[in-house]
Each structure stands twice: as structure tokens, then as C-alpha cells.
Design brief:
By secondary structure, this protein is α/β, with parallel strands linked by helices. The protein is built from ten helices and ten strands. 34% of the residues lie in helices and 15% in strands. The relative contact order is 0.14. It comes from Engystomops pustulosus (Tungara frog).
Length: 311
């Protein structure tokens, strides 16, 4: 079946996720208002999937944009798939629901469509994001991730979220949850860094074998935020092979990179705050790659993560 901008993949709990979403992360120096305007543009041009997180600090603005587009009739709430994430100072079971409730309050929404454990690393509970000691080192905590998952399951059963999953987990961390006694809901997806330089082939195979969707961030490279990204890494969208392919096919490097992941059955998050780029990225459904072309782009893999939290 041909992919379109309204294509969705059925998750293991029966809900459906749009295959392309708008990512909204930006470094602290970028005004939060830019995320608000980007979400409005995205919903106006046909995106149905918006990805953010508690730690991004922009859920007030993102929620305002979603509600504005619902109010003016551009979209209906049931057509918008919204993802938020549990931050790592809230892994202790009694803090999971309060973190989600904070996000819902900021968003002015009754539920989120997908709620993820942001990273499999826990920081000391508290208001500091993240907490650090006198020498500036991060302070960690040791809640069993399976206890955190049970609290996530409670949130799903309470109707505060439609689906639950994880982010930045490797296969061993996923197995901890999949093999836990009394499991009520499997993770529906694992959102990880995945792009032409890091194709996550083994993790993709593992996830598919357990009916877990792989969702890719960093598909277009990164914002090169000094807090999260390797500053020595190459700039993905400037790769000469990628640009040669784009020129030959009359497409943008971003479209080339996105389409490759989509044809592998991966859900793609593409981040841009520029209206023209947001529109261009949704044109990824206007073409497709042959098996030979897919093999060529597979050859760009370097197993090279750009993000410090990649697993």
C-alpha cells in the first residue's frame, strides 16, 4: 500500500500512529514561540503527529498551537496524535502520574496519545533538571525501570494516555520490561536516534520481532545542541552522497533521508521551525525508492550516533 501523509501504523495495543511527525525540540536559546508557530504551520499543511516532551519546556506553547487549530476547525482532537515523555527525575512510581498531569495541564489537553519513558537513566528526584552535585556532576537514582513501567501502565488504565512506550532503550533494557512478571501492556514503540549514519538495523529487527514500532529522531541530523550532541560529528544533510542523490532526483537531502526510513517501516520525526521546510518535508510521500536505491543509502551507515544519550 502506498504511503500518504495520512498513513498510520497500527500499534500493538490497537491504536494507530501517523508515520511522520513534527519534532519540537530546540536548544534553550531558541524562543519557545517558534515551536508554537511551527506546530500551527504543521497542522495547517497536513501533519497529524506532534512530538514534544516535559523536558523541552515548550508544552504550553505546543498545546496552545494544537488548541488554536482545533478551535478554528483546522483539525479535530481525535486527528492529532500527540506524544509527550516522562523526564528522568520522575521515575519513582509515585511521581510518574504527577509528571504526566503537569504536561496535560501545560498542554490544556485531557489525554496524550503516546507517553514515553524519555531515557532509561534516572536522576535524583527533585525540581532540578537535571540535579547536579557541587562539582557539577549529575546525581543519579536507582528506581527499577520495571516499577516505573508499572506506573506508566496505571496511567494508561486511567485514560490519561492512549499508548505507552519508551525512548532511547537498547534491546536489553526493552527485555527487562517485556519479561517482567504481570506485564499488562508491552511498549508500543521505542523512539531512538536513527538516521543514515546510524541505521539501528539490529534494534529495528529486535523491535519488529516483538511487535514494537521503531520511531526515529535525528533523521535530519541534529540541532547540534552542545548539551546533547557530539560537536565533532559530520553534518548529515551536507553528506556529498546524500546531496548527489537529492540533486539527481530533484529532491531535498531531508526528503531523501526521510523517505529511506519510511520505506524501512520506521516512524519518522522531522524537526524544523521554518514553514517552507515543514511543508517540503511532508512532500516525502510524492516519490519512492527502488530496492537498488535503498541498498545504496544503506551503505551510508557508519554506526555513528550524534546524540550523547543514544543507546
Amino acid at each position: 500500500m502506498a504511503l500518504t501523509k495520512h498513513s498510520r501504523i497500527t500499534l500493538n495495543d490497537g491504536h494507530k500512529i501517523p508515520v511522520v511527525g513534527l519534532g519540537t525540540y530546540a536548544p534553550d536559546e531558541v524562543p519557545k514561540s517558534q515551536a508554537e508557530e511551527a506546530v500551527k504551520v504543521a497542522l495547517e499543511v497536513g501533519y497529524q503527529h506532534i512530538d514534544s516532551a516535559f523536558i523541552y519546556g515548550n508544552e504550553v506553547e505546543v498545546g496552545r498551537a494544537i488548541n488554536a487549530k482545533i478551535t478554528d476547525g483546522t483539525v479535530k482532537r481525535e486527528d492529532v496524535f500527540y506524544t509527550s515523555k516522562l523526564w528522568s527525575t520522575y521515575h519513582t512510581p509515585e511521581l510518574v502520574r504527577p509528571c504526566l498531569v503537569k504536561s496535560l495541564k501545560n498542554l490544556q489537553l485531557d489525554y496524550v496519545d503516546l507517553y514515553l519513558i524519555h531515557i532509561p537513566i534516572e536522576f535524583k528526584p527533585g525540581e532540578d533538571l537535571p540535579p547536579t552535585d557541587e562539582s557539577g556532576k549529575e546525581i543519579y537514582h536507582n528506581t527499577d525501570i520495571r516499577d516505573t513501567w508499572k506506573a506508566m501502565e496505571d496511567c494508561k488504565e486511567a485514560g490519561l494516555v492512549k499508548s505507552i512506550g519508551v525512548s532511547n532503550f537498547n534491546h536489553k533494557q526493552l527485555e527487562l520490561i517485556l519479561n517482567m512478571p504481570g506485564l499488562r501492556f508491552k511498549p508500543v514503540c521505542n523512539q531512538v536516534e536513527c538516521h543514515l549514519f546510524l541505521n539501528q538495523s539490529k534494534l529495528l529487527e529486535f523491535c519488529k520481532s516483538h511487535d514494537i514500532i521503531l520511531e526515529a529522531y535525528g533523521v535530519l541530523g541534529s540541532t547540534r545542541d552542545v548539551n546533547w550532541y557530539d560537536q565533532t560529528a559530520p553534518i548529515l544533510l551536507e553528506d556529498p552522497v546524500l546531496n548527489a542523490i537529492a540533486k539527481k532526483r530533484g529532491r531535498t537531502p531531508a526528503q531523501v533521508a526521510m523517505r529511506h526510513m519510511l520505506q524501512k517501516g520506521i516512524v519518522v520525526l522531522a524537526k524544523s521551525f521554518k514553514a517552507e521546510r515543514i511543508k517540503q518535508n511532508l512532500e516525502v510521500f510524492e516519490f519512492e525508492w527502488s530496492a537498488e536505491e535503498m541498498a545504496t543509502r544503506n551503505g551510508l551507515n557508519q554506526n555513528r550516533p550524534l546524540c550523547n544519550y543514544s543507546q
